[in-house]
Amino acid sequence: QVQLVESGGGLVQAGGSLRLSCVASGSVFSINAMSWHRQAPGKQRELVAGINVDGSTSYVESVKGRFTMSRDNAKNMAYLQMNSLKPEDTAVYYCNADVYTGKWYQSGDFWGQGTQVTVSS
To answer: What is the spatial order of strands in the sheet that 2-7 belongs to?
Structure first.
């Protein structure tokens, strides 16, 4: 089985920064795309940033220029550097990874449990 664990969330004032980390463990043979999503209270989960194996990234418009996603393929990790945080960035942030375990029937999309990010005004 595959486990994703996020860390790095917390409480920060508006304008501050946080760095989220996500590590995949277990039966990980390789990881394709990875992404960060967030869900604010009463809202649907939204895709925030994604990164391919080659390191190419994409971002939702509201975080462009403020958030930077990166990955370390050797460590099966992904990161989300969040700068100039705003109160509207407050949400639970989830890591997602498209994982190949070596067995097609055990491969697919996996999610972490989430980490809370709270930005105070």
So the answer is: 2-7, 18-26, 77-82, 67-72
